[in-house]
Every structure is written in C-alpha cells, then in structure tokens.
Amino acid sequence: MGKGDMDHGNMLVAGDALVIVDVQNDFLPEGALAVPNGDAVIEPLNRMIAHFHQRNLPVIATRDWHPRNHCSFSERGGPWPPHCVAGTIGAAFAEALRLPDDTLVISKGDDPDADAYSGFQGTDLDARLKRMGVQRLFIGGLATDYCVLYTALDALEAGFEVIVLHDAVRPVEAHPGDGERAILRMHEAGAGVLSTETIEEEMA
C-alpha cells in the first residue's frame, strides 16, 4: 500500500482537511502511555501542516482530555495507565508540533464513564467539518491501532473520503502486528493509504 492508492486523488484542494490525532506529551517517548517512536510522526505532520496552512485548508487536532477518574484508567479496571488528564502537561500537544493559531481543537474522552477512541465520538466534529464544506480528510497521529483507526472508520461512516498518512502514524502494538492490521482494516473500509512524501511529489 502507499503509492498504489492513487484512486482517491492526493492533490490538496478545497474540501480537504488535515486531522492530527492525539499528538500529546503522554503518548510521546517517556510519556505516561508512550507510543513507541511516537515522536516520529511530528516531522511529517509539520510538513503537512505547512502545506494545508499555505492553502488556507483546515487543520484539526484531536486530543484526549480525560478527567482524573476516567473509565479507561487502570484504577477503574480500564486497560491503560492514567494519561492525558485535562489541563496537565501530559495532555498538552507536543511542543515541536507546529499547529497554526487557527487550528480547530477537538477534545474527546471527557466523560468519566465513556471511552472515546474516535475524534467523532461524543464531539461535534462531524457537524463542524460539514459546515466548513470538508469532504476529504488526511489523517495522521497516534496511535495507528486505536485513535487513528477509529477516527478514520468513523470518518468513512460519516461519508468523508479518508487518506491515512502512512508515515505519520505509529501504533501502540499491545499485540504484535496491531499496527499493520489497523492499516489494512482502514484500507479495506475504503481509506486511501499514502505517505506524505508521495503527496508532496504529486504537488511538486
């Protein structure tokens, strides 16, 4: 996958938006719930941010914004250590991520009794994108096998075209191979899978 997924088109045009999923300190190396090599997504995402911003195309950043007693935390029987508690340094976006001042920030997972891997779950993201006339989403961030996966699947379900930025995602891999299985699942659901370099080559 990658260069073969050209049927979706990959030139940036009106109706496109960039969705950056959960590039927060707690998911970076040494964070509370570190994604292996999670910081590797920042450089390709910054390049894409620049391209979208130069073309006045929307940039959206989702974030986990959990209460301290969130149901996904191990203290409540959830699968994860406490992470991305609202207002903490761990919940802040990575300092090296160059988000424009007009980035649309979508907070999710703020209900203590409901988990939310998708940026669409329990938020107004769908309605806001449609009000902006967005038709196609380019998605990158953390982690491939959880929040990126479910954000992409919900986007497809909501009727958006989706391009997953293969080099701008990284998996948790609680089970070996989860990352590639997630990529395959998104692809089979209808998402295109492209590298940021491929997109840039098409724009050159």
Care to describe what's here?
The protein is α/β, with parallel strands linked by helices and 204 residues long. The chain has one domain: Rossmann fold, CATH 3.40.50. Helix content is 26%, strand content 18%. The protein contains five helices and six strands, in the order E-H-E-E-H-E-H-E-H-E-H. Strands 3-2-1-4-5-6 form a six-stranded parallel beta sheet, sandwiched between helices. Helix 3 (144-157) packs parallel to helix 4. The radius of gyration is 16 Å and the shape is globular. The chain starts with 15 loop residues before the first strand and ends with a helix. Mean pLDDT is 94; it is low at 1-8.
Helices and strands in order:
Layout: E1 16-21, H1 42-54, E2 59-64, E3 104-108, H2 125-131, E4 136-142, H3 144-157, E5 161-170, H4 178-189, E6 192-194, H5 196-203
Parallel strand pairs: 1-2, 1-4, 2-3, 4-5, 5-6
Q: Beta-strand percentage?
A: 15-25%
Structural class from helices and strands?
alpha/beta
Number of helices: 5
Question: Which overall shape is indicated by the principal axes computed on the Cα atoms?
Answer: globular
**Radius of gyration from the alpha-carbon trace, in angstroms:** 16 Å
The domain count comes to: 1
**Oligomerization status of the protein chains:** single chain
Widest beta sheet: strand line-up: 3-2-1-4-5-6
Q: What's the main sheet like?
A: 6 strands, parallel
Helix content: 25-40%
Low-confidence stretches: 1-8
What is the helix/strand order?
A: EHEEHEHEHEH
